[in-house]
Structures are given as structure tokens and as C-alpha cells.
Amino acid sequence: MTMTTRPRPLGAYPVRIRRQRDLIPSRSRRLAIFVSSVILGLLIGALLMAIMRVDVLTAYRSLVSGAFGNSDNLVATLLKTAPLLLAGLGVLVAFRAGIYNIGNQGQFLAGALCSTWVALHVGTVSGALGVPLMVVSGLAGGALWALVPALLRAVWGINEIITTLMFNYVAVYLIDYLVTGPMQSASLGVPETDFLPSGMQLPIIAPGTQLHAGFLLAIIAMLLIYVLIFHTSIGYEIRAVGHNPRAAQYGGVSLRRTIVGVMLLSGALSGLAGMGEITGVHHQLLDGVDGGFEYTPIVVALLGVLNPFGVAVAALGFAALSVGADNMQTVVGLPSSFISIIQALIVLFILAGEYLGRLTIERRGPASESREAAEAETTQTREVKL
Amino acid sequence: MSETVVIGFLTAMIATGTPLLFGALGEVMAERSGVLNLALEGSMLAGALISFLVAWRTHHLWLGLLVGAIAGVAVALVMAFLCVSLLTNQVVTGTVLNILALGVTNFVYAQVAGTALSPPHVSLFPNVVIPGLSHLRFIGPVLFQNPLLVYIAILLVPASGWFLYHTRGGLALRATGEDPRAVASVGMSVLRIRYLAVLYAGLMAGIGGAYLVLGQVGFYTPNVTAGRGFVAIAIVVFGRWNPYRILGAAAFFGATEALQERLQALGISLPAQFLLMLPYLLVVVALLVSIRGRGEVGTPAGPRFLTIPYEREAL
Prior knowledge:
Low-confidence stretches of chain B: 295-299
Number of strands of chain A: 2
Strand order of the largest sheet of chain B: 1-2
Number of strands of chain B: 2
Strand order of the largest sheet of chain A: 1-2
Helix content of chain B: over 70%
Strand content of chain A: under 5%
CATH class of chain B: Mainly Alpha
Shape of chain B: globular
Number of domains of chain B: 1
Mean pLDDT of chain B: 88
Order of helices and strands of chain A: EHHHHHHHHHHHHHEH
Strand content of chain B: under 5%
CATH architecture of chain B: Orthogonal Bundle
Distance between the termini of chain A: 36 Å
Oligomer: heterodimer
Structural class of chain A: mainly alpha
Largest interface: A-B, 62 and 63 residues
Mean pLDDT of chain A: 84
Order of helices and strands of chain B: HHHHEHEHHHHHHH
């Protein structure tokens, strides 16, 4: 780069926008990106509604009142928040380690299946033991479903994105087979299992409503995952592997152990979400218990910027959107898939916003030029591939 | 096994393998340029829906195919803009785009055709019988009595191989996936190469999705692709990023799908759900077989810079 020898007045240097490679956007800037992404998503939603000749205000009002309008709606929103939060935490744990476990749907179903099977075969155990047994079987089912992709990835380096996704389809067909065959209820005569014994159902935590203990489980899980990720050495290792596996390995972290551990924990959390839906909501296993939880946890985890509290907020927001969407469907006739479009759009805007968040406006002067020269010399850090 | 059964099976294999082959031949170019285009599934689904709607409304199959292909490119354009220009994480972006494509297709289909009493159908692409060759015993009915798109897909295999290994463009494409900085240092635009590769993948996936609906099924159901885009991505891995091996891999997965349909029709006592699971399980097995012993922990085989965004250095 040629440097001008004669000093120029500062104003003569051109203003330019440049992107700083390693700049981590400030908290306020990230918040601004987040808020503007949500607003942009809702605006595009409004635009679509206008095109479809739906009254925008009525639609959004029905959305909000459907989610929070009365105590029943609020409970419905909270009921939906719990599984989204749990499965979202599962996605978070894996993504934090750079492991793209997108098999949360299959792991959710495996947790649901495992807890149903245990409950129907063990029968009622003495009062206090039923719920812990359900929790353990939900965790185990989800972890088990993640085990094969985890080992394939850890031992042979086989891309977990494809394997976890393939296992989703396997889980869907397995459940379909079981509820129409071996596990079908003899008395109900429909493709559903028998109802779980009452001792195996999650207790209601708000009398007179449907709100069950799964909500508390989700809150506890959120706090535990927060402590795990940010305040333990294991969490540090997980983040290190996610940031740069090779460097973490040189630092003494076992990649294999981390990958398997993270996948199992991720699967277990999704399994717990599935368990909650069975023992807290449906009280039996049937096709489509995963309805609404197929891909949403991934979006929730990303929207929550892979932070446990962020994921909780995103889960609440998405639960509200999907519960409100049902009301919106009845009021203005917009199908619930409309909301899933807006949800995905918001996350896309946030992804794009990350780039904008690193842009800085600066006046080009001698100082910045010499800094650029120094930067150009430092080797470009390679993000490590999957 | 009688000859007609085998012929029927092989014909079905070609029919089910063709959308996968289209998708995989597109994806291989994107991956060779260093972009893991997970949005292939979304491109395929968009291509399937749009081609179906256009063909259903206009009764022009080829117009449907064209518009469907454009829809596939449109999804890929978003993918390329985010991943190549804005340097976003490819896996995350692809996953979110697939979710978006699923939402949009479900929404559009419900708006346009959801109220129809019986699900709308379209006629399928007619078979093009190759004179002379189609009378060959056994080979004739399997290979030379197919819709035009099947021939195109098969001819694309040597064309892709020729492009990748015997042209300057192919060399540049492969180099971009192996070391983008080397490509940039000789004055070529990594950005342009990656854009073209991803858009091409979207085009192929759009055509593959269109063939699925207009050449194979004849109607649309929500999420009709059911993970075929991901199977196509697995085929690229299984075929080790080589078009000829990809043809073999696509035939293999076409065969599993065809087998699943056959066994079901033959009334084999295995529950239907297990047959439906089969292709998905075999993807996992195939990945294991193809990669075992290669690549160290955490670094699967493939182009060295796959999934790594390239940022042009400031001058």
C-alpha cells in the first residue's frame, strides 16, 4: 500500500464502511439487530396479510389475545413453552460445540416412546418414584436415539447433520408402527396406546389448569444448562470445541468425548421434552405428538443466540406465536404455517444482521492505514470445518 | 424371479433415482466450490410445489418444469447471498431456509389448492421411446423408454465429469473448494464461482423436485420431498464428490425406494413402516461404508474448505 507523504487534513480522508473481521458486536448493537429483525419479520407478515386482503390489525390483535388474552390462553402458551425450551436447550448444547444435531424431532419422539413404554410396563410404582422414573426414561430415550449418530460422528467423522435427520424419519415411522401395532390400545380401538397410570403422570402445578410440572423441569434445565455452559470446565471445553476444535484438542480436550457427551445431553433434553408431552399433556402415545416441535426448537435455539436465557425468551415468544396463530386462524383464516414463515424469516434477518453488526464506519487516515497493514499481516484464522 | 419383475423393478429404480440424481449432481458443484448447500431440500420442495401448481393450472408440463427450476434457483439465491456475501454459517442458514421453504410451500399449497375437494392431479411426462434401442431385450424397456428428463439426468453425469475434470472452469471450481485464497490470488472471483455453483445446485434441485411431482408422482402433498434433498446430499458424500460414483449411489438409493414400493405391493409380511424406514436407514449405513477409515476425527472427507466462508481480503 502506498502511503501519501504529504499530510492531508483529516476531512480529506474518505469515509468508508468496512467490516471488522473479529469484532464482536456490542450488546446494544446485537439487541438492536434482534429487535429490528423481529419488527422486519412482523412487517413482512403485515405486507403479506395486506396482499391477501386480511385486516392486519385484527390479525395481530387476535394473535396476541390468543396467546395472552385470558388465563386459559396464557396457560396454553406456557404449556407450549416448556417443550420448546427443553428441546431448544438440547439444540443449544450441541450447536455450542459446533455439533449440528438437527435430529431433535427423533430424539423428542424417542423420549416420548421410552417414557410411555416404561410407564405401561412398570405400572404404578409407589407415589414419589413415578415422576423421577419418567424423567429418567425420557432422558434415556432421547440420549439413546442420539447415540448412533454421536458414535458415527465421534469415531468415523460421519456428518451428524444427515444422520440425525435420517433418524427423525426412522422415529416417525417407528412410532407409527408401534401405535398401530404392538403398542396399540386393545380397548380404545384407535391407533393410540393405553393411557398412562395416574401415578406416572406429571402433577399439575397450578390448580384448576393444565399447567404441569414439565414447566418447572424446563426452568430447572435452563438454569442447569446455563451453569454448565458458562460456569464449569466442561462447559468451557464445549465452547472451546465449538470455537476451534483443533485448538481445543491441542489444549487437551478429548474431541471424541466432547462430541459424544454433547450429543447425548442434547438428545436427552429433547427426549425430556417428549416425555413431558406424554406424561403431562396427552397421557398416551399417538401419531403426531411431535406436532409443532419438528424444527421449531432449532429456530428457537438460534433466535435465543444459543444462550439459555435467550432460548427461554425465544421459546416463550414462539409458543405465544403458535398458540396465538390458532386463534388467528379462527378469526381471520390465516393458516398456522403463516406464522412459521414469519418465525423463519426473523431468524434469517438475525443471521444477516450479524454481518451488519460487524460493520464500522471510519474515516480513513494514517492511523487506520497502518492498522490495516498490520491486520493484513496476521494470518486469517480459519474456521474449522464440520 | 421373472424377467418382467426385474424389468419393473429397474424401471422403478430409474424413476425414483432421477430426482436424487438431479439433486446430487447440483449439490456436488456447490460442495466442490466450498459451500455445503443444505438448502437443497428447500430448493427441491419449492421446485416440486411451483412446478406442480403451474402444470396443474396451465396444463403445460414443460412450463411447470421451467418455473419450478426458477423457484429452486430463488431459494439458492437467498442461500448464496447469506452464505457467500454475508458470510453466515452455512449449516445454520441452510437449515433455517429449509424450515422457511417448508412453511412457505405448506402455506401456498393450502391457499391455492387446499380447498379443492379432491387433491388435484397432473398427467405425467410421457415416455420417449428411443427407436431401435428400445427393442433390445431387457435393456430396451429399462433404459430406452423413459421420460426425456431421465435421459438428460443420465447424460448430465458424463457432462459433469467432463466439466469438473477437463475444463478450466471445473479446475477453478475444484480449486475454490480446496483453497479459495489460491483462486483469488490468480485473479479469479471466489464470490462469483461460489454464487454460480450454489445457483446451479438450486437449478438442479428445482428440476429434481419438478421431476418428482411431474414425472413420478403426479400430485403434490405437503412436504412431498420428505428429505430427498438430504438423501441427495448423502449421495454426494457416498459418491465421494465424483459424478460417476454419484450415478452409482443415486441408482442404489433409487433401488431402495423402488424395492420398498415393490415389497409393499408383493405383500411381504414386513410392516409397511419398516419398509418406509429403509431408505433413511440405508443412508446412514452408506455413509458409514463410504467414509469408514477415511478422514480423521471431526474432519470428514470432502473439499478442504467445505463450509468455510471466504472473506475477500481488504486491499
